[in-house]
Amino acid sequence: AIKIGVLALQGNVSEHIHAFEAAIARSGIFKNYEVFPLKKADDIPSCSAIAIPGGESTTISRLIDKNHMREEFENFSGGIFATCAGMVMCAGAVDDERVKPLSLIDIEVGRNAFGRQKDSFEAEIEIKGYKEPYRAIFIRAPVVISAGSGVEVLSEIDQGIVAVKSGKHMALSFHPELTGDFRLHIDFIKNLGITEE
Ligand code: GLN
């Protein structure tokens, strides 16, 4: 079976599991698949993709090291679907030294970039290649401050870049697991380039 792990150290894990299951079922892209809560470093290499959910990136950073997962992530050859705190974790650089990012995507990320007034908000955003806008939920969201030349910007709003793609990886400032719009999940899965036997 094709395995998709949702990093289950902290944060909204079950929403991500449900969203991936729904996205795969709806698109019919795989027949034989498993979406599971990823808790052990040993399970990382067998995944075709891993979602790193939102939560608190300072905590997730600490727990990745506590669970000896850093090296497995650095050597991971599948795709990462990184949302919110997950985006912070995948960056090459973060504006908070308490976070030790995994350097999987060549971006510099600022935490809590929207300030107190806009702690949480929803916005209809434009995403590259999509005809219809995407309703994005931002919760104490980060923003991409700068992106390397190999990184494709999928969405930029007034405050900065909020969605990027880099190789098999996708990183989003907002929470695609909460809205029932699975376009980004489906594009991410298709971009893994996996065909079932
Ligand atoms: N502000 C959090 C952080 O930077 C992210 C918030 C979230 O994931 N919803 O860790």
From TrEMBL:
Pfam family, one: SNO
GO BP annotations, alphabetical order: L-glutamine catabolic process; pyridoxal phosphate biosynthetic process; pyridoxine metabolic process
InterPro entries documented for this protein: Class_I_gatase-like (IPR029062), PdxT/SNO (IPR002161), PdxT/SNO_CS (IPR021196)
Documented EC number(s): 4.3.3.6, 3.5.1.2
GO CC annotation, single: cytosol
Record pathway: Cofactor biosynthesis; pyridoxal 5'-phosphate biosynthesis
Binding site for L-glutamine: 55-57, 111, 139-140
Domain of life: Archaea
Active site location: 84, 175, 177
Alphabetic keyword roster: Glutamine amidotransferase, Hydrolase, Lyase, Pyridoxal phosphate
Annotated GO MF terms: glutaminase activity; pyridoxal 5'-phosphate synthase (glutamine hydrolysing) activity
Tagged with keyword Chaperone: no
Record's catalysed reaction(s): L-glutamine + H2O = L-glutamate + NH4(+); aldehydo-D-ribose 5-phosphate + D-glyceraldehyde 3-phosphate + L-glutamine = pyridoxal 5'-phosphate + L-glutamate + phosphate + 3 H2O + H(+)
Role according to the record: Catalyzes the hydrolysis of glutamine to glutamate and ammonia as part of the biosynthesis of pyridoxal 5'-phosphate. The resulting ammonia molecule is channeled to the active site of PdxS.
Protein family: Belongs to the glutaminase PdxT/SNO family.
Quaternary context: In the presence of PdxS, forms a dodecamer of heterodimers. Only shows activity in the heterodimer.
Protein name: Pyridoxal 5'-phosphate synthase subunit PdxT
